[in-house]
């Protein structure tokens, strides 16, 4: 396998952008990434791209140029962007290509995601009782976890408070004003125990990454950020995931456990080697559960981690340094790539007010989506 490097990154700010389609926001991000890498669109040999609600990614050629570029469309839930990057990484690592683009974008309407039971092989009654509403599912899953491992509502609030504080320093974030923990805890209850400030919102945005093999990266003078590992896994028996129609009494596996283990083995690293992490935080509880599922702490230890500030910018493992989904919102196709974008910025030392101190050298990203799929990427400088 050939070493693969991220040589260019670009992002269109997340949130709401009137007058621009999701596709156009994706094209904006690609232009930024090309400029960052010192390349032109005609230099791209192939690409993988994803969108959930804004059309096929291959239509980006209408915005950027009809070069005959092969583009593979990806649709993989919230793991769409991460999966697009993994496809691009595999194309270069295999030796088939020297340079390519991974892109993701979306433009969701206001309100909850409109998932349909039949799309997930579920009967109509599953939707009729409200289980297709993801806020309800996540709250129910979280209540079980909190009861089993002693997680408090205060800890959920600390996750959200940290997110909004970090986002103050992230130009691409949607919500960039700090919110104090009392406001978070006492805001409107959406699904117990999660208040409105503990959920992310469907939004808009685009992200693009330019990947290259070592030879091309050296030509460009961009060998600083290497992809050490990338893995995607679906749910194993006994896991309880989004749109799962039942639950085992004894907890089974989880796709994140599998993806994390595979990525760490591929990289030859362990959780203690990671300097900064971006974890899927569809809501505050997701970040807490994913801290343990990715191996950074034991179940229940999150209470101490958050109380001691260990996941803040200056903590022993900064988590979601740009505010994560809670502050940036979630355009499905772009969200996973935003995590990798943020890790590249951190490894380049360009985070400004949100920059992790101590010259970070390893960065970890984790995405999770319906109906139970996880992707993990490890970068190293």
Summarize it:
GO terms for molecular function: acetyl-CoA C-acyltransferase activity. The chain has 381 residues and is of the alpha/beta class.
Could you walk me through the main structural features you see in this protein, from its secondary elements to its overall organization?
- The model has no long low-confidence stretch (mean pLDDT 94).
- 35% of the residues lie in helices and 19% in strands.
- The protein has 381 residues and is of the alpha/beta class.
- Helix 3 packs across helix 13 (332-348).
- It has one domain: Thiolase/Chalcone synthase (Peroxisomal Thiolase, Chain A, domain 1, 3-Layer(aba) Sandwich).
- The longest helix is centred in the C-terminal third of the chain and has 17 residues, at 332-348.
- The chain has a 5-stranded mixed beta sheet with strand order 1-7-4-2-3. Strands 8-11-10-9 form a 4-stranded mixed beta sheet, sandwiched between helices. The chain has a two-stranded antiparallel ribbon with strand order 5-6.
- The protein has 13 helices and 11 strands.
- InterPro entries: Thiolase, Thiolase-like, Thiolase_C_2, Thiolase_N.
